[in-house]
């Protein structure tokens, strides 16, 4: 049972005594009590436009990026997907269904040949231009398939008016040959002059430690650490017309980039890539500090994964304190550069995933769905419903209407004629009801999830009573 605000309790009791004979007056009593408890928090302040991924140069008008609520991304892999070279075909077979569900883009794992050959997930890249078409590192195909199968997948994505993002590993390389390194006085595996594609040859001069310095912002796993200050590295990664970035964009037809481990180098690297190559951009900056995320996004001119939101959701839903959802997150600080998620190939800590997806798919930012959550672990019909709600009702700025340890209610304030929504999340084991103020006067509303069968009408002052199922959510908007 909820603890009542003492002042609200007195006010409610007084009004009940005065007007207990009239049901309409009972409504006023509840509204007055609610008004005394709720202090609306206007979280974001902007013109209400949805998150934009930009226009794809490789497809026609964006079917999903033009939705009122913006787009939804699918992370189209997980760690250690089945080896054997069939993953591109597996994903290809799902594209039409994902498109029909309202998913507007897919994020693929690193597509080039890596040191571990047919068994690699791609995060130890050897030859950026080997997409499963050269015999090196013990295989022709990558773990995921052949270049022909990859190109077929990309073509299918664009035929469905979706976008496709490549996972780019720019921090480090692996699989080079041993050479004498004059900068370390030892032998290092930094000779990439014999790669099968013949493109982007590298030597010890292109990795730290070298003539330009001893190190950059970070190294990973003992792999050779690319030195982005070296002209040869810049030329081949983003400046040359036949370099990595422009080849992936113009020849392979990728629409954007997920940059791996951006803590390993300075933000100017991504800023220069984006300025020279273009396309959608999001960085994996694994940090819960909103200031660090926001500073990096601004300096890199890129979106960033909202790890602050991720960890707050974990603490709120699994820690049974929804008040934590009032805390700062990247989507609140900079909604047009925040990519939200519930789980991914590296981290999967949130147990109450349905509540977390209800949160990110009704709030601002660019929500990402994890393959296994959608295809294996959660109720796909419920996920499709939330995607539909996001695309069609999740519009405008955000206001938090109420929170306590197990209730959270927020309002999307609508944009460009779209009415927006009210989302109610209930982390308790019983049904909950609460009076809240909408943006709609004298309007019938309904729960677009179907979890509630109520069809209440808002009062002239825009207040209305809504409900939410136990350990669940409801999403309310005008019944139209």
TrEMBL record:
- A Pfam family matched in the record: Alpha-amy_C_pro
In its UniProt record, a GO molecular function of this protein is: alpha-amylase activity
Q: For this UniProt entry, which residues form the secretion signal?
A: 1-28
Q: Does the keyword Metal-binding apply?
A: yes
List its EC numbers.
3.2.1.1
State its cofactor. Ca(2+)
**Alphabetical UniProt keywords:** Carbohydrate metabolism, Glycosidase, Hydrolase, Metal-binding, Signal
Q: Where is the Glycosyl hydrolase family 13 catalytic domain?
A: 71-387
**Claim: Hydrolase is one of the keywords in the record:** yes
| Family (UniProt) | Belongs to the glycosyl hydrolase 13 family.
Protein known as: Alpha-amylase
Give the organism the record lists.
Flavobacterium algoritolerans
Q: Tell me the lineage of the source organism.
A: Bacteria, Pseudomonadati, Bacteroidota, Flavobacteriia, Flavobacteriales
């Amino acid at each position: 049972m909820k603890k009542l605000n003492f002042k609200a309790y007195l006010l409610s009791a007084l009004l009940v005594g005065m007007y207990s004979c009239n049901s309409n007056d009972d409504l006023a009593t509840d509204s007055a009590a609610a008004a005394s408890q709720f202090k609306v928090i206007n979280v974001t302040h902007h013109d209400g436009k949805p998150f934009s991924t930009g226009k794809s140069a490789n497809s026609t008008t964006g079917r999903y990026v033009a939705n009122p609520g913006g787009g939804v991304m699918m992370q189209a892999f997980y760690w250690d997907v089945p080896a054997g070279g069939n993953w591109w075909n597996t994903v290809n077979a799902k594209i039409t269904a994902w498109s029909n569900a309202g998913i507007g883009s897919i994020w693929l794992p690193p597509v080039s040949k890596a040191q571990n050959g047919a068994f690699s997930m791609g995060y130890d890249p050897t030859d950026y231009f080997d997409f499963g078409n050269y015999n090196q590192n013990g295989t022709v195909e990558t773990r995921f398939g052949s270049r022909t199968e990859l190109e077929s997948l990309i073509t299918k994505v664009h035929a469905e008016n979706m976008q496709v993002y490549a996972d780019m590993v720019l921090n480090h390389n692996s699989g080079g040959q041993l050479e004498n390194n004059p900068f370390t006085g030892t032998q290092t595996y930094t000779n990439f002059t014999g790669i099968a594609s013949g493109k982007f040859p590298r030597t010890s001069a292109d990795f730290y430690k070298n003539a330009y310095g001893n190190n950059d912002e970070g190294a990973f796993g003992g792999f050779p650490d690319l030195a982005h200050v070296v002209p040869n590295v810049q030329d081949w990664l983003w400046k040359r017309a036949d370099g990595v970035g422009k080849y992936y964009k113009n020849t392979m037809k990728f629409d954007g980039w997920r940059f791996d481990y951006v803590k390993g180098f300075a933000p100017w690297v991504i800023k220069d890539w984006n300025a020279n190559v273009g396309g959608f951009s999001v960085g994996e900056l694994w940090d819960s500090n909103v200031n660090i995320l926001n500073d990096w996004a601004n300096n890199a001119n890129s979106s960033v994964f909202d790890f602050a939101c991720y960890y707050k959701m974990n603490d709120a839903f699994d820690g049974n304190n929804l008040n934590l959802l009032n805390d700062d997150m990247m989507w609140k600080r900079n909604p047009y550069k925040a990519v939200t998620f519930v789980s991914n190939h590296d981290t999967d800590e949130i147990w109450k995933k349905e509540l977390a997806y209800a949160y990110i798919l009704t709030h601002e930012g660019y929500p990402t769905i994890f393959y296994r959550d959608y295809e294996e672990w959660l109720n796909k019909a419920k996920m499709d419903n939330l995607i539909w709600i996001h695309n069609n009702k999740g519009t405008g700025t955000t206001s938090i209407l109420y929170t306590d340890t197990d209730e959270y209610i927020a309002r999307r304030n609508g944009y460009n004629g779209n009415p927006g929504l009210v989302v109610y999340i209930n982390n308790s084991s019983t049904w909950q009801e609460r009076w809240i103020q909408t943006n709609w006067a004298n309007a019938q509303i309904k729960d677009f999830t179907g979890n509630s069968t109520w069809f209440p009408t808002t009062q002239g002052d825009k207040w209305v009573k809504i409900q939410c199922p136990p350990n669940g959510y409801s999403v309310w908007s005008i019944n139209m």
